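Appendix B. One record, verbatim.
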Amino acid sequence: MRTALTLLPLLGLLACEPKTASDRPANGKAIVEDGSIRLILNDPKQFDRPQDICEAEHCKALLGLIEGAQTSIDFAIYGMRNQTVIKTALVAAKSRGVEVRGVVDRDLEGQNYYSSTEDLVAAIENVRSDLKADLKIARQEARARYDREPKCDRPKGFEGPLQCLAYDLGDSCLLAAHASREPIEGGAKIMHDKFFIVDGRHVWTGSTNVSDSGTGGYNANLVTVVESKTLAGWYTEEFEQMYEDGRYHGRKPRPKGEKKLKLPDAELEVYFSPQESPISSRLRPILRNAQSSIDIAVFFLTHKHVVADLIDAYRRGVRVRVIMDATGAKNGYTKHELLRAAGIAVKVENWGGKMHMKSAVIDGETVITGSMNWTSSGDTKNDENTIIVHSPKLAKQYETFFETLWNDIPDTWLTANPDPESKDSTTACTDQVDNDFDHEADGADPGCTDAAPPLPALPPWKLVQKNGRLTCELGMRE
């Protein structure tokens, strides 16, 4: 375990170190610190394809931190693909004496999704993964697996776990049953974080994978760069649980106290999944208390209770808008069609890259950002981090960016969904990427031909008028 004075140990074993986990304020007061915060919002239309470059602002910010590192770099990333400049900078930092450590994700076969991850692991050496934790959790779940009687009829052609849904629209109930098209038999939880801690005082984190489409600039992403020893200490605690203790996913204990930080320009709250369940414990209360506006830009939106909160906000007069990813909009659990049915404005993006953000701005005051997709897995299963930023200035920056993206998406996609690999999605047919994960790219994909097939149908929904015995809440039970 690292003992440099610039870092906070996981369990506060060094008495000289300030602000360990036990020192966190339990009364809701924020730690006050001089420091800085920067939001970097990446426009997905600035590049026409994923590339092995580091020209996007959020990538250059990361590169600058790595190249300027003096003592330590800790990173937790999903993996790496075609980011030679970043890997080279990490190797150079190690060569000049900087201690470089990392954790990455692995599936139950020990593989990583991104093709350059093994090169990174070989070059850095001090890189660990969640594989042992995944295997142990998988064995436990296999022994504990049981079937539950479904509370609704399964939609035809959808074989995955069934989700029964009912939303109150006042004089009617919006009813649906969602499931994936293919059966889901468990599988590994994922180490889905994307953060770097440099010299015990700088944190780079957000929705951006270290990949040719992420830091390479092809996807819409939001990165937060914070200079703060306190914040870096909190992230180091989280990193040490994974790297030193092998604690991932549900094996991480819930921390004591709250992680609140007051900087000159913003107040921050920090939450880690799954031990703090950020959606249930904090995101939903913020949505329920929204007064005027909620703008959401998100890759996946499948959390049924978040949808209930958004519908309730809309019904009480809050303006709600959502930008969804086109690939996410094909998922059998996507809730964007239900939001539309309730009257909420939802646009599905039609650029080549992904809407990869996991974010929102509420009432011109609060920005939600991080690595966590708005799903049950993001909340209660995967390793994630979420930062809630209270700052009218940064909220305005987000609102301006969101407004630009919203206006750039044609109104056609308020009521329809573009195929993520088709001529409807601008550069998707020339970017050399399998955008819809069907093992076909560009001209080889049927969606890019003149006779493109229609998108597969999503699970149906229906409106049912209320009567004396119908309560919409029944479908919201687990």
